[in-house]
Write a structure and sequence with these properties.
This protein has 698 residues and is α+β, with helices and mostly antiparallel strands. It contains eleven helices and 33 strands. Among the domains are: 173 residues, no CATH class; 57 residues; 111 residues, no CATH class; 96 residues. Strand 9 and strand 10 form a beta hairpin. The chain is flat.
Length: 698
């Protein structure tokens, strides 16, 4: 009975252990591989890579990246676990490996010897084989001198241990194995060695993702990574009796560290803004060092007791009610423990509530499904145009591939394009290409075949559906263009006066005549490019066949053997403003003789001329009087010099004095005349200004 119960009890215990072990193993994450399933390549130098698969229970995924790609990973990684949650995304720090190694209890940064390593674990229990097994605590390693032979002395390292039997000294040269008893310390040593080994591959980093959950469910990991832009090249086949045929190829490159196996590939044309931010480098904020203030301690003071108030003090203590008991305050230990428990429970409850609220807010504000939908909607309304490759693509790492994206007929018309900046004599064979494919054609080279023969190379910029663009691929030697520039003509069209300012408008005309000779055997449409200048107005022809930001294009039909001519005329009206008081006399004469100038304007010009002449005469009189004063002053200087040499009582000295006085009177009279002239000039100038201010004539 007892044996049966023991056997039964052992079975129960064993079953419990098995179940418990099963639960523990189920909770441990299983490392799974998350294959690459989707790649989206952009023209901005990045690509979007998505790994997805199904996992069961807790799982761990490891992805390897180049160090240079970690910044893009930290900026853009999106992780989804449908039915579970993402626990952590861990990766190796960019701190120097020496800094990481210094965080462990055993420092391996200096490449320590065995003796130096044992010095770091002093006091720890170790098992050593020397050759018998010895267990003890490490006291340290000392160096002893040992005689070898008769005259040679060497230094040996000796490990000192404290064992149950006492102190033991063991030569490290005879130790075969050393094991740390402290499992945590042993684990740190192994982890430090792992970090040291990982440091050898400095260009690679491992990113580990922990998925927590139960059951079978899909998971996805997506991120942006630097990638070569995908390129396009085209082949255009021309024939006289058929529509042009366009074939387009996309050139993609797998520069990642992983083979693409049945990957859904999408090529997006457009240039979304993309940049690099250094999120991988640890940033440390420098903080100021503040020294603690030191204060001199005060000496303790003792005070005498007030005996007069002793009875009142005791009475107040007796009448005061006892303090309320604190929760759980059965004793000092119980009271503090109860208070701590109550306060801790309350604070944890509040913290839990706050945590739930914060989590709800985070879930409401960050919906990855909505974010993906928003991006898809933006792509659908035409912000970007994408080519979704229908067949899954397999491409080994560091390999390239060409994928067909366009294959069909397009609309087009052969033309000859003449641009004097490209070639002064001959136009270029070209095609007026209309994108009738319904697809967005990216920029790229075009190889042109005409009637089955290679005809040349061309290039196009981005071409949306339905738009038209010219391409040129060869020099048209059968056609010659001779431009001739005509003489620039100038014509005065109008003259008017606005508040004393004369506004003269002139019309300039320029013309260029093109003569086109077609030496071929069929008619050609020639497009002549002419530079566009916004300051000139096209008058002939009335409008061009095409107009770009910088050019006019004029169409001309050139028949074989017959010269064709095209005259391009432009005009420009320039208005020049001049204040009438500054108008030169020669220009006034021109305006007085011009037929387009009205009689009122001519009369105003004559009046202004008359008043200007009066002011000029007054100014000339002033200059003559000032010259007289200067002559008199020079004469006075001569007289003054002579008087210094004469006797003051002589007749000549007296004559000089008299003449000096007469000259002073003359100077005063002249200066009075000058003042009158200045006043008259100011008066007439004011009258002229008032006249001009009110003068407005057409």
């Amino acid at each position: 009975m007892n044996q049966r119960m023991l056997r039964h009890g052992g079975f129960v215990c064993l079953s419990f252990v098995v179940i418990l072990a099963g639960r523990v193993s189920a909770q441990e994450p299983v490392t799974v591989k998350l294959p690459l399933k989707k790649v989206v390549l952009f023209n901005s130098g990045v690509g979007f890579f998505e790994h997805r698969s199904e996992i069961d229970g807790n799982a761990q995924v490891e992805l390897r990246f180049n160090v240079d790609d970690v910044n893009d990973l930290l900026k853009s990684m999106v992780v989804q676990d449908q039915g579970g949650r993402v626990s952590t995304v861990s990766y190796g720090s960019k701190d120097p490996i020496t800094k990481t190694l210094k965080t462990f209890a055993i420092d391996l940064t200096a490449n320590p010897t065995l003796a130096q390593l044992l010095d770091q674990v002093r006091g720890e229990q170790v098992h050593i084989d020397a050759p018998n097994e010895i267990k003890g605590a490490v006291l340290g390693v000392e160096r002893r001198k040992q005689k070898v032979g008769e005259n040679e002395v060497i230094e040996i390292e000796v490990l000192n241990l404290l064992t149950d039997d006492g102190l033991r000294s063991v030569s490290l040269a005879g130790v075969g194995r050393i094991k740390l008893v402290n499992e945590q310390l042993d684990a740190e040593l192994r982890q430090a060695l792992t970090i040291l080994a990982m440091g050898h591959a400095t260009d690679k980093k491992t990113v580990t993702l922990e998925f927590k959950g139960a059951g079978n469910r899909p998971v996805r990991v997506g991120y942006i990574q630097e990638s070569p832009i995908w390129k396009t090249s085209y082949r255009l086949v021309l024939a006289d009796d058929e529509s042009p045929f366009l074939q387009g190829w996309a050139i993609v490159e797998n520069t990642t560290e992983e083979d693409w196996q049945d990957v859904d590939l999408t090529l997006v044309s457009g240039r979304p803004i993309s940049f690099i931010m250094d999120l991988y480098q640890p940033l440390y904020v420098p903080r100021p060092v503040v020294e603690p203030e030191l204060f001199a301690s005060l000496r303790p003071q003792t005070y005498g007791q007030d005996l007069a108030a002793k009875e009142a003090e005791f009475a107040a203590v007796a009448e005061s009610p006892p303090p309320p008991a604190m929760p759980g305050a059965a004793g000092m230990g119980g009271g503090m423990g109860g208070m701590a428990g109550a306060m801790g429970g309350e604070s944890l409850a509040r913290a839990a509530r706050r945590g739930r609220v914060a989590l709800d807010e985070l879930r409401a504000g960050m919906n990855l499904r909505e974010g993906v939908q928003s991006v898809a909607q933006a792509a659908e309304v035409g912000e970007l145009f994408q080519y979704a490759i229908e067949t899954p693509v397999s491409l080994p790492r560091q390999q390239s591939a060409m994928l067909s994206i366009v294959n069909g007929s397009v609309r087009g018309e052969k033309v000859s394009i003449y641009s004097p900046n490209v070639h002064a004599k001959h136009p270029l064979n070209g095609l007026k290409l209309i994108n009738s494919t319904g697809l967005h054609l990216m920029q790229g080279p075009i190889t042109v075949f005409d009637d089955g023969v290679y005809a040349g190379d061309a290039q196009i910029q981005d071409l949306p559906p339905g738009t038209e663009r010219l391409i040129s691929y060869a020099l048209d030697l059968d056609t010659e263009v001779a431009p001739e520039t005509k003489r620039l003509l100038e014509q005065l069209t109008s003259v008017k006066i606005v508040k004393g300012v004369l506004q003269a408008s002139r019309k300039y005309r320029r013309a260029t005549e093109y003569t086109v000779k077609n030496s071929g055997n069929r008619a050609k449409q020639v497009l002549i490019e002419y530079p566009f200048d916004a300051s000139w107005t096209l008058t002939n022809p009335e409008k061009p066949a095409e107009k770009t930001r910088d050019l006019y294009r004029f169409a001309l039909q050139a028949q074989p053997g017959t010269p064709a001519k095209l005259l391009v005329e432009e005009e420009q009206t320039v208005t020049q403003q001049t204040v009438l008081t500054n108008l030169e006399s020669q220009m006034i004469v021109i305006y007085l003789n011009a037929r387009v100038v009205s009689d009122q304007v001519k009369e105003a010009l004559r009046e202004v001329t008359r008043r200007r002449q009066q002011l000029s005469e007054l100014a000339a009189q002033q200059q003559r009087l000032e010259a007289q004063i200067k002559t008199i002053e020079q004469e006075q200087a001569r007289i003054r010099q002579n008087m210094q040499q004469l006797d003051r009582t002589g007749d000549l000295y007296t004559r000089y004095v008299k003449k000096f006085g007469e000259q002073e009177s003359q100077i005063e009279s002249i200066r009075e005349q000058i003042r009158s002239l200045i006043a008259e000039q100011a008066k007439q100038q004011q009258a002229l200004d008032s006249y001009l201010t009110s003068l407005t004539l057409d």
